[in-house]
């Protein structure tokens, strides 16, 4: 799947919403995480389904919500007790802020510095994304990412993409975490 491909997703599973493990969550007001972005994002569209009705959720006007574009990246999560490699799922608010950093002459390539992402839970500014000091990714960090062997398609898309059977072959070779190198 190329960076510009958008998969159509029928509904959103809750399997990736658990605490810890392979998925990074910044879901509550005040939650914050320092991460190093690794590689390019995948993106897809999700239609959020109301679990009570089995139909698309309704907006404030009572109309079915349309699909929302979502992104996911592999990140190195910097925690007080160490580092871990995780998948990070996010929406347009964070994507626009990451894109602004990439386009900035002072920051550029996201893999060359850490960012702190904070949940503000404020309309119009849900998340803040603050770049931190630049430092190249170390060989130990590269090895950690390779050893984690995360497959974003399997984590976020497989078995949820309409008319696409889940297969291991579908994701082979489609994502290189060090594609920007």
Describe the model.
With 181 residues, the protein is of the alpha/beta class. It has helices at residues 92-103, 139-148, 152-157, and strands at 6-9, 23-24, 32-46, 68-79, 82-90, 113-122, 125-134. Strands 1, 2, 3, 4, 5, 6 and 7 form a 7-stranded mixed beta sheet that branches. A hairpin with a 2-residue loop joins strand 6 and strand 7 (125-134). The chain starts with 5 loop residues before the first strand and ends in a 24-residue tail after the last helix.
Sequence of secondary-structure elements = EEEEEHEEHH
Approximately what portion of the residues adopt beta-strand conformation? 25-35%
Determine the structural class based on helices, strands and strand pairing. alpha/beta
How much is the radius of gyration in Å?
17 Å
Task: Give the overall form.
Answer: globular
Give the CA-CA distance, first to last residue. Answer: 19 Å
**Which residue ranges are poorly predicted, with pLDDT under 50 across at least 5 consecutive positions?**
1-19, 159-177
* Total of DSSP H or I helical runs spanning 4+ residues: 3
Mean pLDDT: 77
Give the tally of β-strands: 7
Characterize the biggest β-sheet. 7 strands, mixed
């Amino acid at each position: 799947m190329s960076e510009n491909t958008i998969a159509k997703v029928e509904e959103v599973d809750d399997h990736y919403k658990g605490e810890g493990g392979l998925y990074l969550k910044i879901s509550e007001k005040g939650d914050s995480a320092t991460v190093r972005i690794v590689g390019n994002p995948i993106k897809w569209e999700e239609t959020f389904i109301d679990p009570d009705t089995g139909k698309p959720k309704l907006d404030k006007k009572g109309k079915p919500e349309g699909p929302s574009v979502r992104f996911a990246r592999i990140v190195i999560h910097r925690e007080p007790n160490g580092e871990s490699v995780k998948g990070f799922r996010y929406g347009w608010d964070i994507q626009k802020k990451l894109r602004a950093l990439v386009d900035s002459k002072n920051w550029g390539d996201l893999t060359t510095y850490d960012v702190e992402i904070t949940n503000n839970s404020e309309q119009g500014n849900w998340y803040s994304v603050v770049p931190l000091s630049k430092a190249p990714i170390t060989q130990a960090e590269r090895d950690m990412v390779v050893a984690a062997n995360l497959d974003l398609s399997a984590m976020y898309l497989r078995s949820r993409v309409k008319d696409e059977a889940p297969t291991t072959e579908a994701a082979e070779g489609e994502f290189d975490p060090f594609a920007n190198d």
